[in-house]
């Protein structure tokens, strides 16, 4: 069996931001070119995605666009031998031709799934139809999982009708040295060490919902308590920025929280005003110590009128899918250093040899996607096709 080798090259770009110096390292982990290549992994189970090899690349057709059952459009793009490390920052770069969607905005969304069958994250990226190939970057900051040797990258096209042509996929690790956030800072708040009155914790005089479970201030920070995992992530929710600030259209922002996580789950951050806001979900694991979590908002407000600003903004933390008491110690909202980041990605990355992904290794999976032994009886997936095995 031919294995995809991981070629790495580190680049260091130093950018000066006022009095502060930033150093970025961009490591190229993988590059696969799909021009004229037969895919090694076809959709599984009742996944109806149609994948064909063309001279331009993989032609991926989703016959059920806008179907909320997202598994109908999953296409695994890499061999299952990737390793991802927890708390590392990754970037997946796709070179694709996006079909026109025949709607008023000619706009849809891909989901790029990164991880393993058991643990993965699926950031969504807005795309626009076009006649030429375009480069789409999907950032996966602060990955929540350690995945050893069975990771993959998959593409879901459920919200893009038509035929997507995938020419190339690249995987990078992005390393930023230094702990200070990029300027300019839009908001900064330290919730720890605030005084309590003689009766105990202070209630927070910002928006909270539901009203019968308001957030409280303790000597550690802002405490948001969720008694049990809820059906909706937005209940309970609390504004963690107690002063309004202004954001600009099509800028890249990060909301950085320093907090204690009580249980495994997912946080959702809403950034913006009541009329214009965007959300970001981040999976988390419990920790008795404070940890830093970044919620990224690239191209903030790209669908509002050019040149507009969004006033009276806030950051709203929604903890409905994390049970227990979340303690927020610090909040920083800042604009990403886009120029330095792009320079680090674009400057002199050494080309990695294109690899044919056609592979026949005899691995067998059941319809739940679990690897099984050759003695397993029933319907299985072998080399991307359904077969009946071991029955008389």
Label this structure with key terms.
disordered N terminus, 1 helix
Q: Bin the helical content.
A: under 10%
Question: What is the β-strand count?
Answer: 29
Structural class by helix and strand composition: mainly beta
Task: Return Rg in Å.
Answer: 23 Å
* Major sheet: 7 strands, antiparallel
List the uncertain runs.
1-21, 347-361
Query: Outline, from the CA principal axes?
Result: globular
**Proportion of beta-strand residues:** over 45%
How do the SSEs run, as a string of H and E?
A: EEEEEEEEEEEEEEEEEEEEEEEEEEHEEE
Separate helix tally:
1
Averaging pLDDT over every residue, what do you get? 76
* Terminus-to-terminus distance: 30 Å
Give the SSE layout.
Elements: E1 10-17, E2 20-33, E3 50-53, E4 58-61, E5 74-76, E6 82-84, E7 90-97, E8 107-115, E9 120-121, E10 124-128, E11 134-140, E12 147-159, E13 163-177, E14 185-190, E15 202-203, E16 208-209, E17 216-217, E18 222-226, E19 237-239, E20 245-248, E21 251-261, E22 265-272, E23 277-284, E24 287-300, E25 309-321, E26 324-335, H1 338-346, E27 364-365, E28 378-382, E29 385-389
Antiparallel strand pairs: 1-2, 2-13, 3-4, 4-13, 5-12, 6-12, 7-11, 7-13, 8-9, 8-10, 8-12, 14-26, 15-17, 16-19, 17-18, 18-26, 19-25, 20-25, 21-24, 21-26, 22-23, 22-25, 27-28, 28-29
